[in-house]
Specification:
The chain contains 3 helices and no strands. By secondary structure, the chain is mainly alpha-helical. Helix 1 packs antiparallel against helix 2 and helix 1 packs parallel to helix 3.
Length: 74
């Protein structure tokens, strides 16, 4: 592989770690907004709508926000 591949792998792992941290933060914030606002509907919960806009601006995947707003299935 060589040194170039190792450098790329290290850089990718750093950026992936940053993205994972940001995604986790927004996931937690969205869960708290749903709990405090009482609704998983962004039209009814203004705090949730604002957080979803912020998440989109920070390139958080849609599945993070969707899985955070949906009730858990067991």
């Amino acid at each position: 592989m060589g040194r170039a591949a190792a450098v790329r792998a290290a850089t990718k792992s750093k950026t992936d770690a940053k993205k994972a941290k940001i995604n986790a933060v927004y996931g937690k914030k969205i869960i708290m907004a749903v709990k405090s606002g009482g609704s998983a509907d962004p039209n009814a919960n203004r705090q949730l709508a604002d957080l979803i806009k912020q998440a989109k601006a920070n390139s958080v995947p849609v599945d993070v926000s969707l899985s955070s707003t949906s009730p858990p299935t067991t």
